[in-house]
Design a protein that fits this description.
With about 120 residues, the protein is an all-alpha fold. It contains 5 helices and no strands. Helix 1 packs across helix 2 and helix 1 runs antiparallel to helix 3. Keywords: Membrane, Transmembrane, Transmembrane helix.
């Protein structure tokens, strides 16, 4: 039972990490130090998607699920939980490039907006 709760905790953390990588730059409007935390997270998300690797959090969640007597999964977090909702046909290299580009474009837009509004 504890392993299942731990796996669910890792799952929630993983989802939070992804959302922070995508939108965390907006928190810099409130806290000026946030880019020091956010930019490495966004860079890691970009790297994982661009190289087609699986995030270590996926391996941790799978291990905890197996220890809890549940089945793990072989694909990435995005493939397992989100891809069927966003891209029903499955994850391809092209989709991973789109995801990586989305992380970069969204964050560039957020940081450009912050720079423009801090000058005024």
């Amino acid at each position: 039972m504890y392993f299942r709760f731990a796996a669910d905790g890792v799952l929630l953390f993983h989802l939070s990490f992804i959302l922070f990588a995508l939108f965390g730059g907006a928190l810099a409007a409130r806290w000026r130090w946030m880019p020091l935390v956010h930019l490495p997270v966004a860079a890691w998300a970009f790297f994982i998607e661009l190289t087609g690797r699986i995030c270590p959090l996926t391996y941790l969640e799978n291990d905890l699920r197996v220890r809890a007597g549940q089945s793990g999964y072989a694909e990435s977090f995005i493939e397992h939980y989100l891809l069927d909702v966003i891209y029903p046909s499955g994850l391809t290299r092209e989709v991973q490039f789109v995801l990586a580009t989305t992380v970069v474009v969204v964050n560039i837009a957020i940081y450009v907006w912050l720079v423009i509004h801090r000058r005024t």
